[in-house]
């Protein structure tokens, strides 16, 4: 923790627009990173509990795009779009996420993957354009709980792959 010099903890300039979710995943970092980079993996775990994903197009590279639809458990479809802005295997991915290209409400996320013994510490830091958009995401779309569920689904998925790999 850093300090401002006046006895108060430093506060990020974007703290009121951020959501930070982290989790330790019992799988090697390379496998956790791969789960974010190959569509065959993403379609198996992406999204909160009860959601499924249909990919329209997927090109994992800086400037590439992932167009997809998330199907909610109540039958509602949510059109989504992601463009990757930074890829540093197997340590970091940065992306822009919205409903479509040019979405003025698109938000930025940075995912970091750090070794934690034989496991991986994954942090997903999301910054919204405004505090109001962050609050809407939290209150209307349950973004914090949904993010936790998504990382839980990832953990279950890659842990099973790692277990099967260990069994040969």
How would you characterize this protein structure?
With 168 residues, the chain is an alpha+beta fold. Helix content is 30%, strand content 36%. The chain contains 4 helices and 7 strands. A 7-stranded antiparallel β-sheet has the order 1-7-6-5-4-3-2, covered by helices on one side. A hairpin with a 6-residue loop joins strand 2 and strand 3. Helix 1 crosses helix 2. It is globular. The chain starts with 17 loop residues before the first strand and ends with a helix. The relative contact order is 0.21.
Beta content comes to 35-45%
| Number of strand segments | 7
Average of the residue pLDDT scores: 92
Uncertain regions spanning at least 5 consecutive residues:
1-5
Coarse morphology: globular
Q: In whole angstroms, how far apart are the ends?
A: 43 Å
Q: Count of helices?
A: 4
Helix-residue proportion: 25-40%
**What summary fits the major beta sheet?**
7 strands, antiparallel
Strand pairing plus helix content: what structural class?
alpha+beta
Order of helices and strands: EHHEEEEEEHH
Q: Describe the strand arrangement of the main beta sheet, using strand numbers.
A: 1-7-6-5-4-3-2
Radius of gyration: 17 Å
Give the topology:
Blueprint: E1 18-25, H1 29-37, H2 39-45, E2 52-58, E3 65-71, E4 77-88, E5 92-98, E6 107-116, E7 119-127, H3 131-139, H4 143-167
Antiparallel strand pairs: 1-7, 2-3, 3-4, 4-5, 5-6, 6-7
Helix pairs in contact: 1-2
């Amino acid at each position: 923790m850093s300090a401002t010099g006046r006895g108060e903890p430093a506060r990020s300039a974007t703290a009121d627009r951020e959501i930070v979710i982290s989790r330790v995943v019992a799988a090697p970092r390379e496998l956790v990173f791969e789960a974010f980079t190959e569509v065959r993996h993403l379609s198996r775990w992406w999204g909160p509990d009860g959601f499924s994903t249909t990919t329209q197009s997927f090109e994992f590279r800086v400037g590439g795009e992932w167009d997809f639809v998330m199907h909610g458990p109540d039958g509602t479809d949510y059109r989504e779009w992601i463009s990757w802005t930074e890829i540093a295997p197997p340590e970091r991915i940065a992306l822009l996420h919205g409903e479509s290209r040019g979405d003025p409400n698109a938000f930025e996320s940075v995912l970091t993957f750090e070794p934690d013994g034989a496991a991986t510490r994954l942090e997903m830091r999301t910054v919204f354009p405004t505090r109001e958009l962050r609050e809407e995401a939290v209150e209307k779309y349950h973004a914090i709980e949904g993010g936790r569920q998504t990382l839980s689904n990832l953990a279950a998925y890659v842990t099973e792959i790692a277990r099967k790999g260990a069994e040969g």
